[in-house]
Write a structure and sequence with these properties.
- The complex is a heterodimer of chains A (about 375) and B (about 160).
- Chain A is α/β, with parallel strands linked by helices and about 375 residues long.
- Chain A has two domains: about 5-40 and about 285-385, Alpha-Beta Complex (Aspartate Aminotransferase, domain 1); about 45-280, Type I PLP-dependent aspartate aminotransferase-like (Major domain) (Aspartate Aminotransferase, domain 2, 3-Layer(aba) Sandwich).
- Chain A contains 13 helices and twelve strands.
- Chain A is globular, with a radius of gyration of 21 Å.
- Chain B is extended and about 65 Å long.
- In chain B, about 30% of the residues lie in helices and about 20% in strands.
- Classes of the chains: A alpha/beta (about 375), B alpha+beta (about 160).
- Chains A and B meet through helix 2, helix 11 and helix 13 of A and helix 2 of B.
């Protein structure tokens, strides 16, 4: 049959990661550093709480916005951590992962032709979600020499009369870059002056290794123009539970809730109960996991130094983003050849935007033992191609 | 740095000073020196390997023995504990609060050897009032490690 399908969807490129995934799937004995999720199991007391909810028969829909007690815990958590002040009843919506929040947030604010500024390299869904919502993605190529932070100047250059939203993906996947208070103050000035909404995706906020994470929403006067996205996947190692949340001014949340209500109904109930436990008693787990990531991060950076691989020091998430430019191969070639010859899987930087060319993303959500094997394979490969 | 080294080395005794140093972002010699000090101070008391003998052809029987004793004047439980732990076959001795005093663990080739130790050596000690021997049938988890669970990566190999 000749399917006459949506042209908008047909024109969207499939994720660049997919192709690589298929390649890896065909091979045996692959050591992968290509994963974008924690290696830890969800802490047992959190899982136990989910099991308990099932046992008690909590198997029904929750309210569209999510369990009230969960929204209250989210509100308290954000207040305790980042001095944010969100009303659990009108300014918080529990979503199916941060991904849903990105999607419905953009759909709730964009009109046809509105421009969305997206710093790249960054997570794969901002651009397609912008297009699906009728917006026009305008990308900023973040630079290695700025440690992949967004500068005021780069932002100003891309602002037009149609600019409506700035997406702020920090701590960043895939670069591991963070934005600190002084960087964000500069950005805040510009968006206030130009009346731009900021969608800040802070899903990695618990995973920073320098100072405590700072949110742009903390800056006085910013709350009214910020859509704040976070979730449980990275902080509490809960990716498969599919649970995130979004906080924003009431008028925005109201519109988002309509989409959520018709498309999703409510986030998974078991996950919501488990998440309550995570926020109430999960702080210690987070600290332990963060410490563990930090050791691996240092271990990798130190190994890179020994191998003379160029890499800026990333302070967030669980990725390092080394440059492979000096080996004279494209990111895609490098990753493909590394996979074929050494059976080591990494993700080419270009999967996260054109400005990822010349870089590869290496995840350190792996045990030190695993990293050691991976490093020795990488060393072999580099010695070979240097000759 | 001490606590951090201990934290790492407790979970993996094979980790080299260099590997620990890399994870902590400090110099290798600093870590090596600190480990030497920890050994000297007897904070690090030894390096062992956790083996699940069940999976081998070698027979081992382990027992936990609850021992009630009469403490001795001036020396409390230490004297009797020492008499017990000096036996080579004794793996560990703990002073316990509650219904009995000492918990002794043994590991031998056969059940009989353990029975003989209890009846001939342990029970006959002057201060020992009574013993209760429990044989271990299966070891599920030891030193924080699940023995029957294979460590496998349950994640997809590549994800965004």
């Amino acid at each position: 049959m000749n399917y006459d399908l949506s042209k908008k969807i047909i024109n969207i490129k499939p994720s660049g990661i997919r192709r690589f995934f298929d390649l890896v799937a065909e091979m045996d004995d692959v050591v992968s550093l290509g994963v974008g999720e924690p290696d830890f199991d969800t802490p047992y007391h959190i899982r136990d709480y989910g099991i308990y909810a099932l046992e008690k028969g909590k198997t029904f829909y929750t309210s569209n916005s999510g369990l009230k007690e969960l929204r209250q815990e989210i509100s308290k958590y954000l207040n305790r951590k980042y001095n944010l002040d969100y009303d659990p009843l009108s300014e918080i919506l529990v979503t199916v992962g941060g991904s849903e929040a990105i999607d419905i947030g953009l759909r709730a604010i964009l009109n046809e032709g509105d421009e969305v500024i997206i710093p790249e390299p960054s997570y794969v869904s901002y651009k397609p979600c912008t297009i699906l919502a009728g917006g026009v993605p305008v990308t900023i190529d973040l630079k290695n020499e700025n440690n992949f932070r967004l500068t005021k100047k780069e932002l100003e250059e891309k602002i037009t009369s149609k600019t409506k939203v700035l997406i702020l993906p920090f701590p960043n996947n895939p670069t591991g870059a963070i934005m600190e208070e002084e960087d964000l103050l500069e950005i805040a000035k510009v968006v206030k002056e130009k009346n731009i909404i900021v969608m800040t995706d802070e899903i990695y906020s618990e995973l920073t290794y320098k100072n405590k994470h700072f949110s742009i929403a903390e800056i006085p006067g910013m709350k009214e123009r910020v859509i704040y996205i976070n979730g449980f996947s990275k902080a509490f190692a809960m990716t498969g539970w599919r649970l995130g949340y979004v906080c924003a001014p009431k008028p925005i949340i109201e519109q988002m809730t309509k989409i959520h209500q018709y498309a999703i109904m409510c986030a998974p109930t078991t996950s919501q109960y488990a998440a309550v436990e995570a926020l109430r008693n999960g702080e210690e787990d987070v600290i332990k996991m963060r410490e563990s990531y930090d050791r691996r991060r240092k271990f990798l950076l130190e190994s890179f130094k020994e191998m003379d691989i160029d890499c800026f020091e990333p302070y967030g998430a669980f990725y390092v983003f080394p440059s492979i430019k000096k080996y004279g191969m494209s990111s895609d070639d490098f990753a493909t050849t590394l996979l074929k010859e050494e059976r080591l899987a990494v993700v080419p930087g270009t999967a996260f935007g054109d400005s990822g060319e010349g870089f590869i993303r290496i995840s350190y959500a792996y045990s030190i033992e695993n990293l050691k094997i991976a490093i020795s394979r990488l060393k072999n490969f580099i010695n070979k191609i240097k000759k | 740095m001490r606590e951090k080294i201990l934290d790492i080395i407790e979970k993996n005794g094979k980790m080299s000073a260099k590997e620990i140093a890399m994870q902590l972002g400090v110099e290798e010699v600093k870590v090596a020196e600190e480990i030497m000090n920890l050994e000297k101070e007897n904070i690090i008391c030894g390096y062992l390997t956790l083996i699940d003998w069940e999976k081998t052809n070698i027979d081992k029987v382990s027992a936990l023995i609850e021992v009630r004793v009469t403490p001795q004047k001036g020396q409390g439980f230490d004297r009797i504990a020492e008499r017990i732990y000096n036996y080579g076959e004794v793996k560990s001795v703990y002073l316990i609060s509650g219904g009995y005093d000492l918990l002794v663990t043994l590991e031998e080739k056969t059940l009989k050897e353990i029975a003989t130790f209890v009846s001939d050596k342990l029970s006959t000690l002057d201060s020992v009032i009574s013993t209760a021997t429990h044989f271990i049938l299966k070891r599920y988890k030891d030193h924080g490690i699940m023995l029957d669970k294979k460590v496998e990566d349950k994640r997809e190999a590549i994800s965004p």
